[in-house]
Design the sequence.
């Protein structure tokens, strides 16, 4: 992509949707995401949240790091790079993935789009060119970062399918979760996937920058009667916790940025064993993960339902004898689950099934700090898991 | 001794591979060696480079033979004889008579008793430090950071060996491993010519200049060797270098090793459990094995034969970064008569002759290689083996074999273009010291690192299968964590010079690998 004009005068990039998002951001609250500026909040966090849950919310995902892997060896390449069996992700499908360093510690998580034969896209939080490049030695693949070349919108919520259908994307309701379909929009190919970061019915739309504004305008025009609203990163954080989705840098330390030994996590320690296929003869980190399997993991990731209504942000967790057994990584009061929920990383001496988990929660009243000790129980199912997320054809209104 | 008769396939028939094969066969393994070329020996071979003229193919002096291996495999009974032993080093002097180094004795123009005393004390010190290294060479290097008893014992043993060197020895060791040979020699000598004559030993075959750190280790490495009990001695085997490897071959065959020539391995077969289960040949056939041992360099083994897709990326990345940029070429000349060198006694012409007048000369030649260029003034190590062994050339004729240093593997203009120019420069340098030599040349050959890579299959054409510097030494060779001859692929071992303790025609890597393998696979 050509650098944006006068880019050197500002220390941030604007996404192709910026002229629209800035108009709608009446709070003027922005934050930096991989050198782009994106809205933290547009009008009110809770209302943006409810738009996603009850009608449709739109988020500008453009800064998400996107890497394209092509070439005759790409299938073999991705199968060695990621911990899961990538042969199961057929063409036109998307898969959730994690990948590890040589010590079996998670570098990042993301989604892989198997777009066509010998073409995969990896979408994630941290730039992976270096890791992908190192992994490419001996493989006939080409790796390219296309973050700046592809604009992306998340269109999420119960009415999202109806809006896209109203825009003329025929058969959109027949997309199964994690399906990909290509459409024509004003003479350009766009890609729509039934994916998202919200745990609800929703789509992600991928397009070249040139048509970004036209797409936005038409989306909001057709979406008006369906209650379309933009939502920012604060609301996104709420819906993703309800959906049980992790964020690197919050729920776990990105292995390559960690300074202290022991601060990183393996997939087993993040509750992601289902993403690790040790029966594959080789993948990055396999040797270390086999050893961990034998030795036992040091940490356990859990979802918690905490008593009371005070979110357990950053809480220390204790067992019944007052021994520290872990910390909370993400927390919120969930309006949809009507529960005080949290993610936590537990360690010894906590014993599954035997020990209680008690959260030490601090909260303020008129600047006065208060403390409560609240017991928490482990939740194994997603906090929020509506039927409409899964059913195909998707609900239309 | 093992009761299981496991089948081992050894890739390559270099001296380390043959040594390893013999030790394994002696322990009861069924061993099969496959060699791509039509003779054994790898770089320790005899090469007929033009009809009637034979030279040692790559290595031309034997100086690190391991007495244990020599005895255990009965190499003398199997045909190893020396045509010449305890060779002196003759350093050619552009301004007068050559310097003659005989053990710890110096002779030459302007050499005073003080020089001799300095040299004696220098030799004493470096020999004693080299003996410490030698003690670590004999065992599989202990891994750091494990609680394995054998590793801890190994570390303790190494620590004890260091401790018994006394305070002075320990201090010297710690200081010497960090500094460069330039500074070391500056400390001991004031004569530029002496310093130059000694410094070549530190850099020959390595991508190092005298001022490069680590160059003391490479110097000490050359002193770890011995021939018939004399530390740091040089010898020429009778019948060319192949008589050493042929003795190894004879010994191996007597022990029941099957050696298959002209049998080039295309890849190592790795099964679905990540275990090496055999090899596939370029001819298309395959052979199954319980254990595979590779005598070729680590890069070729893992990147070419195993293939990146069978290995984790972190490992491939590290192997790919093993430093092995070959720097030495081999010059072969067929001569119509015995050349004469300025300032060299005729009786000394069969000795080890070096062209390395000053450390400046070496450093300047090294500077060129940093920028992928080649100086027109290159250092050399020269032998005329036909003086000791008349079978190498027709009567009255001679062959000259020289290692020419600082001819980098990657040259900016490419070797095709540069080779005739480099050869011409090398011959010009030679004739500065041996004025009539150009008229005596009947045939010449220059094997560049590129040629060595193509002919012998060593990545980068690097003689030692990887730089012998501290970051690739002991438990760090070839990589930290895999220094015990094993690899991330189950049942695949490495036994070549790329493993501890490195190159030099010792065979120790081969033997240590065999010991490790016998322990793990029995």
Sequence:
């Amino acid at each position: 992509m050509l650098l944006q004009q006068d880019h050197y005068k500002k220390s941030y990039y604007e996404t192709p949707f910026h002229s629209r998002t800035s108009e709608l951001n009446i709070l003027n609250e922005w934050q930096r995401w991989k050198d782009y500026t994106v809205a933290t909040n547009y009008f009110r966090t809770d209302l943006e949240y409810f738009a996603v849950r009850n009608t449709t919310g739109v988020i500008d995902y453009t800064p998400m790091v996107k890497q394209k892997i092509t070439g005759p060896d790409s299938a073999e390449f991705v199968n060695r790079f990621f911990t899961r069996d990538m042969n199961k992700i057929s063409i036109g499908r998307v898969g959730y993935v994690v990948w590890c360093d040589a010590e079996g510690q998670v570098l990042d998580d993301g989604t892989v789009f198997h777009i066509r034969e010998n073409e995969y896209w990896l979408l994630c939080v941290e730039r992976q060119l270096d890791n992908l490049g190192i992994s490419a030695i001996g493989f006939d693949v080409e790796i390219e970062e296309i973050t700046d070349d592809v604009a992306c919108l998340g269109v999420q919520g119960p009415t999202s399918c109806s809006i896209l259908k109203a825009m003329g994307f025929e058969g959109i309701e027949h997309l199964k979760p994690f399906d990909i379909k290509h459409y024509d929009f004003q003479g350009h190919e766009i890609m729509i996937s039934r994916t998202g970061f919200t745990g609800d019915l929703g789509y992600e739309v991928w397009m070249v920058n040139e048509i970004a504004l036209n797409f936005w305008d038409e989306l909001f025009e057709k979406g008006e009667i369906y209650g379309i609203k933009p939502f920012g990163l604060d609301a996104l954080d709420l819906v993703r916790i309800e959906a049980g989705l992790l964020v690197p840098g919050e729920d776990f330390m990105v292995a390559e940025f960690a300074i202290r030994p022991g601060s990183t996590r393996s997939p087993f320690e993040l509750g992601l064993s289902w993403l690790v296929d040790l029966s594959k003869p080789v993948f990055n980190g396999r040797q270390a993960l086999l050893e961990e399997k034998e030795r036992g993991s040091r940490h356990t990731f859990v979802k918690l339902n905490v008593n009371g209504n005070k979110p357990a942000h950053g809480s220390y967790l204790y067992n019944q004898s007052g021994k520290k057994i872990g910390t909370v990584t993400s927390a919120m009061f969930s309006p949809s689950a009507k529960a005080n929920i949290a993610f936590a990383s537990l360690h010894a001496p906590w014993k599954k099934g035997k020990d209680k988990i008690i959260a030490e929660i601090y909260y303020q009243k008129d600047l006065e700090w208060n403390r409560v000790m609240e017991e928490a129980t482990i939740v194994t199912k997603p906090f929020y898991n509506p039927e409409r997320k899964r059913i195909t054809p998707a609900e239309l209104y | 001794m093992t009761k299981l008769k496991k089948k081992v396939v050894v890739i390559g028939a270099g001296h380390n591979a043959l040594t390893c094969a013999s030790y394994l066969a002696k322990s009861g393994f069924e061993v099969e060696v496959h060699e791509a070329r039509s003779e054994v020996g790898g770089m320790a071979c005899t090469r007929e480079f033009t009809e009637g003229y034979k030279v040692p193919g790559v290595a031309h002096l034997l100086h690190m033979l391991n007495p244990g291996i020599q005895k255990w495999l009965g190499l003398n009974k199997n045909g190893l004889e020396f045509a010449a032993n305890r060779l002196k080093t003759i350093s050619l002097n552009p301004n007068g008579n050559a310097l003659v180094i005989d053990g710890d004795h110096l002779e030459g123009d302007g050499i005073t008793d003080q020089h001799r005393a300095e040299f004696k004390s220098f030799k004493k010190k470096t020999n004693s430090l080299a003996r410490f290294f030698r003690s670590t060479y004999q065992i599989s290097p202990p891994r750091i950071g494990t609680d394995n008893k054998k590793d801890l014992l190994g570390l303790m043993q190494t620590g004890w060996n260091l401790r018994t060197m006394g305070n002075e020895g320990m201090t010297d060791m710690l200081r010497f491993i960090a500094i460069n040979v330039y500074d070391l020699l500056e400390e001991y000598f004031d004569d530029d010519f002496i310093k130059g004559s000694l410094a070549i030993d530190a850099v020959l075959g390595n991508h190092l200049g005298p001022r490069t750190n680590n160059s003391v280790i490479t110097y000490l490495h050359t002193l770890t060797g011995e021939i018939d009990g004399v530390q740091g001695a040089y010898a020429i085997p009778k019948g060319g270098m192949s008589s050493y490897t042929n003795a190894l071959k004879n010994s191996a065959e007597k022990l029941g090793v099957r050696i298959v020539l002209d049998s080039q391995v295309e890849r190592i077969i790795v099964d679905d459990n990540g275990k090496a289960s055999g090899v596939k040949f370029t001819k298309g056939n395959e052979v199954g094995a319980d254990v595979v041992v590779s005598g070729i360099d680590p890069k070729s083994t893992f990147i070419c034969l195993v293939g990146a897709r069978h290995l984790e990326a972190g490992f491939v990345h590290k192997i790919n970064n093993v430093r092995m940029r070959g720097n030495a070429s081999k010059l072969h000349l067929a001569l119509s008569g015995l050349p004469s060198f300025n300032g060299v006694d005729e009786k000394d012409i069969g000795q080890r002759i070096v062209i390395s007048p000053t450390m400046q000369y070496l450093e300047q030649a090294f500077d060129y290689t940093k920028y992928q260029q080649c100086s027109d003034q290159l250092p050399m190590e020269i032998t005329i083996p036909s003086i000791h062994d008349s079978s190498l050339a027709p009567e009255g004729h001679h062959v000259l074999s020289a290692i020419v240093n600082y001819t980098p593997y990657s040259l900016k203009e490419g070797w095709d273009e540069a080779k005739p120019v480099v050869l011409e420069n090398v011959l010009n340098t030679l004739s500065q010291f041996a004025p009539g030599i150009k008229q005596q040349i009947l045939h010449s050959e220059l094997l560049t690192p590129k040629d060595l890579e193509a002919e012998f299959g060593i990545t980068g054409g690097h003689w030692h299968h990887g730089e012998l510097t501290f970051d690739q030494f002991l438990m760090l060779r070839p990589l930290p964590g895999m220094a015990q001859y094993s690899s991330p692929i189950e049942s695949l071992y490495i036994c070549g010079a790329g493993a501890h303790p490195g190159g030099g025609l010792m065979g120790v890597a081969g033997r240590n690998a065999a010991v490790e393998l016998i322990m793990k696979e029995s």
Summary: Chain A has eight helices and 20 strands. The CA atoms of residues 50 and 57 of chain A lie 8 Å apart. The interface with chain B takes residues 73, 76, 80-81, 101-102, 131, 134-135, 137-139, 281-287 of chain A (CB under 8 Å).
